[in-house]
TrEMBL record:
N-terminal signal peptide: 1-21
Taxonomic lineage from the root: Eukaryota, Metazoa, Chordata, Craniata, Vertebrata
UniProt keyword annotations, A-Z: Disulfide bond, Glycoprotein, GPI-anchor, Lipoprotein, Membrane, Signal
Name of protein: MAC-inhibitory protein
InterPro entries: CD59, LY6_UPA_recep-like, Snake_toxin-like_sf
Pfam families per UniProt: CD59
Top-level lineage group: Eukaryota
Quaternary structure, from the entry: Interacts with T-cell surface antigen CD2.
Location(s) in or outside the cell: Membrane
Domain UPAR/Ly6 intervals: 25-108
Annotated source species: Cynoglossus semilaevis
């Protein structure tokens, strides 16, 4: 009876139950050597985005519980990877490759410089 009541409430306020467990945070999800990750996943409210790079190997990108984002916990979660660097972040698609992250500010700076030059000539 309670389940029916909850479903009716969701219908009345036009919410899907999945939106209650989702944080709206989206992260890249892949495990590859290229850094060209295209798959995106929706995270839960406890998650952050993670990028874990094996030295001389592949990079793993995914949602991860924020409390698991520390060196000792990641070593337990990924025992086959002995030496790695990692980064956790909490904005949409923030676990992309560093080259992609650098391109946006560089392009913005170039665009600004070109517009100033164009206005003054």
């Amino acid at each position: 009876m309670i389940i029916v009541f909850i479903k009716v409430c969701f219908l009345l306020i036009n919410l899907k139950p999945s939106t209650l467990i989702s944080s709206g945070l989206r992260c890249y999800k892949c495990s590859d050597y290229t850094g060209r990750c295209q798959n995106v996943q929706e995270c839960t409210y406890e998650d952050s985005c993670m990028s874990l790079s094996e030295r001389g190997g592949k990079t793993i990108r995914q949602c991860i519980r924020y409390t698991d984002c520390d060196n000792s916990r990641l070593s337990q979660m990924f025992p086959a990877i002995s030496a790695f660097t990692y980064r956790c972040c909490s904005s949409n698609l923030c676990n992309s490759s560093s080259a992609a992250q650098m391109s946006t500010p560089v392009l913005a700076l170039l665009g600004s410089l070109m517009s100033v030059w164009w206005c003054w000539t």
